[in-house]
Structure formats: C-alpha cells, structure tokens
Design brief:
Radius of gyration: 14 Å
Helix content: 40-55%
Order of helices and strands: HHEHEEHHH
Number of helices: 6
Number of strands: 3
Oligomer: single chain
CATH architecture: 2-Layer Sandwich
CATH class: Alpha Beta
CATH topology: Zincin-like
Strand order of the largest sheet: 1-3-2
Length: about 120
C-alpha cells in the first residue's frame, strides 16, 4: 500500500473518533512515518533485532497530566506505515489495524496506559 493511501486511512481513523475527544486533540500533531526511529525504539527499550516494533507512538504529556505544556511543543502521535502493514493480515485488514492504532495512541493522550486500553477493548 502506498504512502498516500495509508495517510488517507489514518485520516479516516481520526475522523471516526467522537467529536468530544477530537476537540481535545487540537494541539496534538498526528503524523505518519515509515517506521520508528532508532532513538524512539531505544527510548522504549525495544530492540529491532528482537522482532518487536511499534505500530504507533504517543509522545507528550497526557491530557490528565496537563497536556500540551511540555517544552512548548505540541504532543504528537505517529503512526508507522511499515509496521502496520506488516501487522495486517493482508491489504483488506490495513484499515482495521490503522483505526485501532489511531484509537490506541489517542487513548494514551487521555492518560490511559496499556492495561487501561486493554480493559476498555473488552
């Protein structure tokens, strides 16, 4: 899947977030990158050679912690194209993986950790 189509799917995933949450994302940049940088992986203790990676990454101060106030920069969410494509069970599955990843990273912005997100999915 090319980058343009992938970005369209990310935009669609964002548009599916309820308006009451989108209003609170005004100072959050949502980006697409090919894959996580070595620095991003290192900061999270992920070794590329282990086969682990990231589908998306929230970087910032969660909304519960005051959000948007760190270092004068907006928070950011990055969705990583190559890992998402590798995770999907074929091209027809990419929209689902993208939408789940977008929701997951936005949940981090609202202060949810991995356990909170897993509980909310059930």
């Amino acid at each position: 899947m090319d980058s343009k189509r992938f970005k369209e799917l990310v935009a669609k995933g964002i548009s599916e977030i309820p308006a009451r949450f989108l209003e609170k994302l005004k100072n959050v940049a949502i980006l697409v990158a090919e894959e996580p940088s070595a620095e991003q992986l290192e900061n999270l203790g992920i070794k590329r050679e282990s086969g682990d990676t990231l589908l998306g990454l929230y970087e910032g101060v969660s909304n519960l912690e005051g959000g948007h106030t760190h270092r004068g920069f907006p928070d950011r969410i990055t969705i990583f194209r190559k890992p998402v494509l590798a995770e999907a069970a074929g091209e027809d599955d990419v929209p689902r993986v993208v939408a789940e990843t977008v929701r997951h990273e936005i949940a981090h912005h609202f202060g949810m950790d991995e356990e909170d997100i897993e509980r909310a999915r059930k």
